[in-house]
Specification:
Length: about 575
């Protein structure tokens, strides 16, 4: 067993695991009405799905950092010896699902001394520098090893050293034993689940986990994106926000030119998550109200005649949506690192299913969006929002905005974003936010929102867009927030009152969002790394206005870390 040294002292651990500093999101319990209402076959299926998700979490821990599993083993051994430091460290490890993360103040959390986060996380050799990575790829291409380089630069490969070269191994092959176990669980679930459509998907997904063939995943993704009326939810999420190594390629002109000449696209690596839940019919019906408007939104996207987007402007939107009561969130989708995933629009634009006629699917996480402390919310509003505008704030309006955000991922250019390198995710998340906000007036005109809801969305969106501290450039979801706040302030969409509170100039918000959306989509169409870099650097500025609100937020909320309680899942895993 590998021995590690604790990085956080006992006092710091006691602080971070105290309820005042550690927010808890509670998933379904064994006695929840949602679970008890399931048919017996679906209850049995849920056991297999939770087991499958727990195995996938083990896989993603290795993708995230090569030390995660050995460190977990070390912690368990130290806990068995009675170590309080190990016990408290394990709480944070389980919450952030790994050794390395960030907290809500954007400070790095390192649970083991000497184990820093790498650009390539666990998908590249731990000792591989950016410079060596570029040099090896250049040499391999010049030596005629283009197929080997292509394998290295797919989103599915684990990269290993091969003498002086590198090699890419498909993750299904690399983790074949555990993927086979997941496939077994999915097939077992399909034998007892009551929904035939869902069972077909489970079987397709199981096949994709037994053979390293991206097209098998495409068939599974295509079926998954068609699911609408099922009792259960199971998703293997594949998103590439964490890999910072691959994105550096566009910074090397020689390497970029060689890749282009050989028709090789460097796609960041997928990190894996697993979501298990029970579909909430009432919440899903509310979500579906926007679907009939999606083709109109596609028509109204900036420069819509210059690109193809997932949502057709005149056909079926190819978009399903479900609201889910959460049972388990494993791996990438369940890691609490400064925050936790609220909803997802998948598959992403780099996935094969979109090339064979597949659509996308939005899944919303009910328990994660629920407000756990109404009194704290009131305290926050009293501290940061002009009292005259409290009447417009509604926490449900944030959910409406999120619906717009997730659907907006299916709008705009769906190809070429890899050319933006490390800025691609920042730009894409910014686009989704600004599209959600920019279309509020149009959706009000079409009848989706009432005039009162329009006001609630605008004010709630601006008020909720402020952070407790400046994020790091690697936090795409938070970087875009800073960019938007600077952009909105410069265009008069909000101001800070004499007593240091936000006053939203309501009629200026939507025009500013529309303008920013146009600029973002133009960058995506052009696929120009330099333009993306300049745009992010020009707007990613922590202003005095943001600092005023940040100081107030820090006084209201002591939260530094977060975790999930999943009592039903724990019971099902026994």
């Amino acid at each position: 067993m590998q021995i590690y040294e604790f990085n956080l002292p006992i006092d710091e651990l006691k602080k971070r695991t105290h309820k005042d500093y550690l927010v808890t999101k509670k998933f379904l319990k064994p006695d929840s009405a949602e679970y008890l209402a399931l048919a017996e076959g679906d209850k049995q299926a849920l056991k297999h799905l939770v087991k499958a998700a727990s195995i996938l979490e083990k896989i993603n821990m290795q993708i995230d950092c090569k030390h995660n599993l050995p460190f977990k083993e070390f912690l368990d051994a130290e806990i068995s010896k009675g170590s309080e430091q190990a016990k408290l460290t394990k709480i944070l490890f389980d919450a952030q699902k790994g050794i390395n993360a960030i907290d809500t103040m954007s400070n790095p959390i390192r649970l083991a001394k000497g184990i820093d986060e790498k650009l390539g996380k666990g998908v590249y050799p731990e000792d591989l520098s950016k410079e060596e990575f570029h040099a090896v790829l250049i040499r391999m291409i010049k030596d005629g090893k283009t197929e080997e380089v292509r394998n290295i630069l797919t989103q599915r490969s684990i990269v290993v050293r091969a003498a002086e070269d590198l090699a890419g191994i498909d993750y299904v092959e690399y983790f074949s034993e555990d993927f086979a176990k997941i496939a077994d669980e999915l097939e077992d679930a399909s034998r007892v689940s009551t929904n035939e459509d869902f069972n077909v998907y489970l079987i397709l997904q199981a096949k994709a986990l037994r053979k390293a063939d991206p097209m098998l995943d495409a068939y599974a993704d295509k079926k998954w994106a068609e699911l609408q009326d099922t009792p259960l939810e199971f998703t293997i999420t594949r998103e590439n926000y964490e890999d910072e190594m691959t994105g550096t390629i566009v910074e090397n002109e020689e390497l970029s030119k060689l890749l282009k000449e050989n028709n090789i696209s460097p796609i960041p690596k997928d990190f894996l998550g697993a979501r298990v839940g029970i579909v909430n019919k009432e919440g899903t019906e509310a979500l579906m109200k926007i679907k009939k408007y999606l083709p109109t939104l596609a028509q109204n996207m900036p420069f819509s005649d210059e690109y193809k987007q997932t949502i057709s402007t005149d056909d079926d939107a190819l978009q399903t949506m479900v609201d889910v009561d959460m049972v388990y969130a494993g791996g990438d989708v369940g890691a609490y690192r400064g925050g936790i995933t609220l909803a997802e629009n998948l598959p992403n634009s780099d996935k094969l299913s979109l090339t064979i006629g597949g659509g996308r699917r939005n899944v919303y996480h009910r328990q994660i969006r629920f407000i756990s402390d109404i009194e704290k919310l009131k305290e926050r509003l009293d501290a940061i929002l002009d009292k005259d505008q409290h009447k417009y704030y509604l926490d449900e309006a944030d959910h409406w905005f999120t619906i717009g955000h997730e659907n907006a991922h299916s709008l705009g250019p769906k190809e070429g974003s890899e050319k933006l390198g490390k800025y691609r995710n920042i730009i894409e998340e910014n686009k989704a936010d600004m599209a959600s906000l920019a279309f509020v007036d149009l959706l009000t005109e079409l009848g989706m929102y009432t005039p009162e809801q329009r006001l609630q969305i605008i004010v709630t969106c601006v008020a909720d867009n402020f952070l407790k501290s400046k994020p790091t450039l690697s936090q795409a979801h938070r970087v875009r927030t800073v960019m938007q706040n600077k952009y909105m302030y410069e265009r008069g969409a909000y101001e800070i009152t004499k007593d240091g509170k936000i006053h939203v100039n309501i009629d200026k918000v939507i025009p500013a969002a529309r303008q920013m959306l146009e600029e973002i989509v133009r960058i995506q169409i052009d696929g120009d790394f330099a333009k993306a870099e300049k745009y992010v650097n020009d707007n990613f500025v922590w202003t005095p206005q943001m600092e005023i609100i940040a100081q107030k937020l820090q006084k209201v909320s002591k939260t530094l870390n977060g975790r999930v309680e999943n009592e039903l899942a724990d019971e099902l895993l026994k």
